[in-house]
């Protein structure tokens, strides 16, 4: 492609709203443009990158045994009622009515549609197992679309769904997908980890892993062990039972004084309390009120711990969970926010294991400006449900090997694999007759990769202060061919000739034939980040070119015109 | 692909709602399934075919100089207000609100989005011309989705848009697209014609052609000349001015009797009148009341002619036009339907040239059960606007060469090319600074191809009573390899070996390794219609196979195993 013809609207300014690195570079490099919040157009360079990613994904997913389909975005709302997700999905599910008043959802995912398809088409174990996939546009009305392509309202996804007659087949397909995902992200040049994950609204009874790219800008926190292979999303990572670890002996055996209410004017936060009272955060019991599916519950964790809402939600088997607002807290506790406590609180109390292991603690008094000390779990309040409700902390012991300690790092979710089991086949009646003639529900799995997010994530990992650095397999073009001056006949002729020669050798070349200053051309070249840059300058009179790899910090190398093609082939690994 | 693994749910029964041939075969052959009215899932064979079509389209459109993008389906409603099409598109435009109450349209086409993109990115003639295209899902809430993939509410389209600094460049791009369309439809094996077309709601001031596949099931009527190259959509085809052709001398010079009202009880239709009165249909003047953008107009055509609503709409520059209902007709004419006439009718009268050329005629009397004879156009009623408001008839003279006569044939619209001019660039403010420093509106063109419709149209032209007959370039697989019995070791081994050998030679093979009766296998093979069928039967003991081309009526041919690959290569034109 010649750059005078190419639509590559590079910018010199970073767009004001772009915080994520990938968002900045993709907009500056002319790869994408925003149409509306969380809705982007892919411009030609972006489209080419996405096509390369699509090709890699399609290759590997087909190798894993899946067949490609294309399912509609317009999905009858009845299907979502049938699966029970019409309500669960909440405002993220975009709804609309057709001209006859019939309600549709714009597919944020396709479990409903594909299960209903398979329910109609497959009746016998003989036709199982079956895995279908598609690369298709998804719609999710995110509350806060952000970071460019990292969290969009309209985006490309590869979603695959497997149907099998037994769990053994599901395990086999799951493993094949798991392996395919590794190959895909490797081919995309990513530094990633598969981690244990929480099933969320989509989940079923089986396992689930997320594939996480390690990146500062990630929304997720990944917990890993420094000794064993353990890796999990913070949402999921189990904390080791603190009653053993903390060295506290169980509280009930100790002689502890009676509860004592005391004045703590304006001491609302853990920090205010520890600073003012000269105590440790771990001496405090934090009481937080949530509304779970409309009903209030209190969650108690130690003052130095943070609540893991996913764990709370799962323990309650709740669909929605949110922090209670100030008004609700006041009506339940009778006190301002910051002074809630478990004593005499007439709502269910979910108590974290680390709290049950405390001999005593300081809690809010359910009275503004008052706390209580010497509160003994089980003696002074009833534990409705003890459990693991907190986020693990860096440095804690690994829940897997118990030997190592945990570290955390931020990550971007690239994909996930789920063992759904019979969750959807039961709701949508997808049954088959097994080899003994008995009707059974199909065992399902689902497997997603965010295609547009993948493009952004590659940039998060591959860039420098001058712009993007595309891996060869993904780059929109492999070689950026830049004559210093198109006015110079020797240079322009040599460039044109090399352009043809490289293309004939199957190399994708962008020829910067623009009548721009060299500074502008080099700035754009660094910005759009093609793997190999060839400059045709004055040295062409001696038969020499300059070659530089975008990722390299070394200065450009002089290479003879006669050797350049072979040299490039080596660099491209051809 | 081995058929035991492939998801190809063939059916023995024609689906009850499928009228169009392509709809029947695509459903029976397991290529598509309906999710909702006008909304289909592409199953694996359908998806492969669409990918082949996409590849052909992408190839040729890129050769024509266009660059691929991907634009959002979710489009802010404001853009549609800006272009003025928010109202025009009517119920076909699917509208929805996001969680913040902001209104969006689901893109039925992308003139608004792309013009707004280019408006922001291109300011100078130096960056023009530019042509961008995408292959993307479109949404149109059709009043009557029908014929399977021929008229859908969600479908794949290739849409391209060109921006240029002058009309000369537009003409050049238009011609390149026109040529690319010819190559695309040729490569798809279609019998088609480019015809002059009407611009419709999308149109601009320039020309427009439709590419029509000749097919009985087509919704469109194509008019062609038996002498010259003239071909037009019936909507567009101009009628030769009948005042010259019909031999009538202009009416006003003739001595004609005065108007005479007469009793015509229950004679409402042209047929009832001609039968009862013993006259010719061409002696009658038909008066039909329309509501154009809310206002009534009457259109007058000769009794043997039919009204062309597109011509009427264009003459009025109306957005919406529809037949007046019975109540409206009564309130305007004072009579029941069937007795409307132009005399003393106080609404605009659009009079077809063939009527202006009549010396006199019989019209309704605007009184139930009465007509008037000796009505002279211009004498007895005022002509608001004379024009060509009728459909041409088969056998009429060609409006182009005047020598040949016209024929009609039905067609399916495969694609269209439009010279939009400045219609959208004016509405959306897409300007550039020309080489003299003057700000001008960009000159636009747009170019569409219905990708999913193309698949259906190929079937409309390529099928027989047993099923589909795929052209080689489009077929999901090129060879259907069928062992008579997989239980027979010699047959199954030979089949497996040939399967590998052909795949290694780059041939796409479907191996029917199912444990089914030969009758079932052959029926399915005819149904899904792969170009070449190879049967491995008993003759394999003598080293012989049976080869049959799907399109051929000849019996299968015996060919030696050693020669089969070369033979297939020849048939595939490799």
UniProtKB/TrEMBL annotation, chains A, B:
It is found in: Cytoplasm. One of its GO terms (biological process) is prolyl-tRNA aminoacylation. GO terms for cellular component: cytosol. Keywords: Aminoacyl-tRNA synthetase, ATP-binding, Cytoplasm, Ligase, Nucleotide-binding, Protein biosynthesis. It catalyses: tRNA(Pro) + L-proline + ATP = L-prolyl-tRNA(Pro) + AMP + diphosphate. Pfam families: HGTP_anticodon (PF03129), tRNA-synt_2b (PF00587), tRNA_edit (PF04073). The keyword Cytoplasm applies. It comes from the Bacteria. Consists of three domains: the N-terminal catalytic domain, the editing domain and the C-terminal anticodon-binding domain. Belongs to the class-II aminoacyl-tRNA synthetase family. ProS type 1 subfamily. This is Proline--tRNA ligase.
